[in-house]
Design goal:
The complex is a heterodimer. Chain A is of the alpha+beta class. Chain A has 3 domains: about 45 residues, OB fold (Dihydrolipoamide Acetyltransferase, E2P), CATH 2.40.50.100; about 80 residues, OB fold (Dihydrolipoamide Acetyltransferase, E2P), CATH 2.40.50; about 80 residues, Ribosomal Protein S8, Chain: A, domain 1 (2-Layer Sandwich). Helix content of chain A is about 20%, strand content about 30%. In chain A, strands 7, 8, 9, 10, 11 and 12 form a 6-stranded antiparallel beta sheet that branches. In chain A, strand 10 and strand 11 form a beta hairpin. Chain A is flat, with a radius of gyration of 21 Å. By secondary structure, chain B is an alpha+beta fold. Chain B has one domain: GHMP Kinase, N-terminal domain (Ribosomal Protein S5, domain 2, 2-Layer Sandwich). Helices cover about 25% and strands about 30% of the residues of chain B. In chain B, the strands form 2 sheets. A 5-stranded mixed beta sheet of chain B has the order 1-2-3-5-4. In chain B, helix 1 crosses helix 2. The relative contact order of chain B is 0.18. The chains are: A alpha+beta, B alpha+beta. Chains A and B meet through strand 1 of A and strand 3 and helix 4 of B.
Chain lengths: ~230, ~240
């Protein structure tokens, strides 16, 4: 068959542009590749829908949608989704539920009394202890600050935004904390626990909504700062 | 195929019953994110066809016997709504929908990087709301868009187009009359960036020369559809794709 239709002459995408799976990013120069990029036939190809990022010659795609995959050491907010006699199953906003063994619970629990200690629907603050290659993970509640969450509410942001929201001295999360006077804990799985008065919680919810809507802004920190001053009049 | 009286479906000037030339596509409209509860979704109007595709996952594969230790499984379900055709379509899975679900899954497995999600399942739902002709092509293309919208890593998009033979003339993108009364039908799934083929079926007979002509029509049409897909994505998410 003829090769009509192959589009070898396509131009490379520029940094910051929207790319879709299969788009040619550049020629493969043998360098490192980042998230959402693969090497194919001497070219770098986007594998995800998102915005192209170039940093020090390394290309990656800042995706529009992502799924959270646990990594050891991640501080996460989970929901109890089920239990057996000696373990709980935890929803971490990931494809697979994690397990929390009775031995890693923050309180003493008798064998068979897991439901009495933490029932289905309980929100917990925990840390990912280990993850194997097939994505099975174990979480622990032994550690400073890890506990059942009994107050406040939980909001979410896309998991790929967690780094952007938490990074820097004047990070977005710190700005929101200062403006709202709320206690905020950002989980690596995109869940955010917020506790404070109702007015503060409203400020946080609005600000997080603004972050979600403007996630691909080039100066999101600055935009959030302006929003917190002008948007809410705080 | 054929044998349905002397219906003239293409005139002496090469104009088809719906006014198109042999190589023309039907009008195409694409919208992304039409199912907010899904992880990714897309709707596609292709002529009178109207198809919605939604993607959920990756998620834990259930029942466990379908899990693969080294990769994810694609669970594709193609379904036609009972009101999608002029005669009521009996609801539920049937042999045709099973076949289309399978070939769609096979085509998508060629591009989706399943090895990144061991033991998982990615669920793809394709719902045909209005059927004219070529619903498997529209379903496969819409599913590829919904997968991209869900952030599932893929090596390329999949574009599917069908060409066929009507009154001994090879034409691109068959409509309902041409599909029903034509002599052959050649749906193909194409990777637009590499020109590779991931899906091909043929119904009826084509000579080698006719097959080549239908192939060329499909390849050219796939590039046009790919551009429309990129425009729709850029419209939804901003920027220039």
């Amino acid at each position: 068959m003829s090769d009509s239709g192959a589009s070898d002459g396509r131009t490379s995408a520029a940094s910051g542009s929207l790319v879709i799976p299969g788009d040619k990013i550049s020629s493969d120069t043998g360098g490192q590749i980042g998230h959402g990029v693969m090497k194919k036939d001497g070219s770098l190809i986007a594998t995800k829908l998102g915005y192209l990022v170039e940093k020090g010659g390394e290309f990656s795609v800042s995706p529009i949608h992502t799924t959270y995959f646990p990594r050891p050491g991640d501080l996460v907010i989970g929901y109890i989704e089920g239990m057996r006699a000696n373990i709980w199953f935890i929803d971490l906003n990931a494809p697979f539920n994690a397990i929390l063994p009775m031995s890693l619970a923050p309180m003493k629990v008798e064998y068979g009394a897991t439901r009495d200690a933490m029932n289905v629907g309980t929100t917990i603050l925990c840390r990912v202890q280990e993850v194997d290659e097939s994505h099975s993970s174990v979480v622990t509640m032994k550690g400073m600050g890890l506990r059942k969450v009994n107050s406040g509410f939980v909001d979410t942001i896309p998991p790929h935004l967690v780094g952007k929201v938490a990074s820097g001295a004047n990070s977005i999360i710190n700005q929101i904390k200062d403006s709202s006077n709320c206690r905020i804990i950002l989980g690596a799985n995109g869940r955010i626990w917020v506790d404070g008065d109702s007015n503060g919680i409203r400020v946080v919810r609005d600000a997080l909504s603004f972050v979600r809507e403007n996630e691909h802004s080039t100066d999101l920190n600055g935009d959030v700062a302006k929003y917190l001053v002008n948007g809410n009049g705080e | 195929m054929g044998g349905y009286g002397d219906i003239q479906m293409i005139d002496e000037n090469g104009v088809r019953v719906d006014g198109r030339k042999a190589g023309d596509l039907r009008p195409i409209e694409i919208e992304l994110g039409v199912v907010p509860v899904a992880d990714g979704s897309a709707s596609m109007r292709w002529g009178t066809n109207y198809v919605i595709a939604a993607v959920y996952g990756p998620m834990e594969a259930h029942p466990r016997k379908i899990q693969r230790q080294e990769r994810a499984v694609l669970d594709v379900r193609y379904n036609m709504a009972p009101f999608s055709t002029t005669d009521r379509f009996r609801p539920g899975f049937n042999r045709r929908s099973r076949e289309i679900s399978k070939v769609t899954a096979d085509a998508l497995e060629s591009v989706v990087q399943l090895e990144l999600f061991p033991r998982s399942k990615i669920r793809v739902e394709i719902e045909v709301i209005c059927a004219e002709a070529g619903t498997r092509c529209v379903g496969l293309t819409a599913a590829s868009l919904a997968l991209a919208d869900a952030g599932i890593p893929m090596s390329d998009m999949v574009v599917s187009v069908a060409s066929g033979k009507v009154n001994d003339v090879v034409v691109c993108d068959l409509n309902k009359e041409e599909d029903n009364y034509g002599e052959a039908d050649l749906p193909m799934g194409i990777l637009p960036n590499s020109g590779e083929l991931v899906f091909l079926q043929m119904d009826g007979d084509l000579s080698p020369a006719e097959f080549q002509e239908a192939w060329d029509y499909n390849m050219a049409a796939a590039m046009n559809v790919h551009e429309i897909m990129k425009e729709a994505i850029a419209k939804k998410y901003g920027g220039e794709s």
